[in-house]
Amino acid sequence: MLTWQPPPPVAADARVLASGGDPTVPAHSGMMDYLLGGDFNTAADRAAVEKIRAVAPDIGEVVAENLAFYSRALRTVFKAGIEQVVELGIGMPCGDAAHHLARRVSPGTKVLYVSGDKPVATHAKSHLTGEATGIFYNDIREPHRIPEHPEARRLIDWDRPVAIVVRDVLNYLQCEDNPQYLLARLMKSASSGSYLIASNTTSESISDLLYEQLAHSFSNAGQKLVFRSQAEMESLFAGLTLLDPGVVGVHEWRPEKPTKPLPMQFLGGMAIKP
Ligand SMILES: C[S@@+](CC[C@H](N)C(=O)[O-])C[C@H]1O[C@@H](n2cnc3c(N)ncnc32)[C@H](O)[C@@H]1O
């Protein structure tokens, strides 16, 4: 007798499942991966993104602007002589990831990814562990563990300047997590001349409908999305010297081409440790 079998998962889903991901719950990393055209996401991630896209058809361009900011900021620090990057809250690296940019602009740069997503860390370990790259799992709320991890010790010389990157991660930290303290703790491990590059969603210029859909989608993914104001974003760089043009919409941060108005924006900035 024939019994019904569920259809085999597509390759992207299969990769997530094989790495211990839960196919029934959307993951932020999987949603972002799908938006950026990656191949490490599940049907639940894709469905969650399509619900957001129904309200904000340009949502892909919003995250692309944030990616472009990251790329411009990293190229700036590479030109300033930085040869070490620690990127926190990484999803599956795709597009112009730090190690791809480094290879083109500053070969030999060490890039350490720290992921708060266990399936991402598991899957990426095999192809991101090399002479100049590494990845491990660590919740950003435990910043003191990062410099002590064997991969961090292998790749990063904390006595030399490093660029610490937190792109689209702080949105998932609640006020009680004290993101300002977490970043300050991380920067304490870094030497003078180190950079902090950070971006976060802002509620400025977002429609109520999109706000509600985002809040709904992210609560289904098990977390509350926190939009931060300009002043809150600036406070994350306390004790550092913010570089021009300060904390601005990411499309306004040293732009290289004009951009069109988008349904929401990230605020981003870069600062140096005196
Ligand atoms: C929308 S994704 C963005 C991924 C990547 N940073 C990017 O911009 O493409 C949000 C990321 O934040 C990470 N994240 C959320 N809470 C975290 C925490 N407490 N510690 C570390 N990472 C966290 C998730 O694992 C996920 O990879």
From TrEMBL:
Query: Gene3D superfamilies under this entry?
Result: Vaccinia Virus protein VP39
Can you provide one Gene Ontology molecular function annotated for this UniProt record?
A: methyltransferase activity
The record's annotation in SUPFAM superfamilies points to: S-adenosyl-L-methionine-dependent methyltransferases (SSF53335)
InterPro entries attached to this UniProt entry: SAM-dependent_MTases_sf, SAM_dep_MeTrfase_SAV2177_type
The answer to keyword Methyltransferase applying to this record is: yes
Query: Which terms under GO biological process does the entry name?
Result: methylation
How far does the signal peptide extend, from start to end residue?
none
Q: What is this protein called?
A: S-adenosyl methyltransferase
User: What are the UniProt keywords, alphabetically?
Assistant: Methyltransferase, Transferase
According to the entry, what is the taxonomic lineage of the organism? Bacteria, Bacillati, Actinomycetota, Actinomycetes, Streptosporangiales
Give one Pfam family: Methyltransf_19
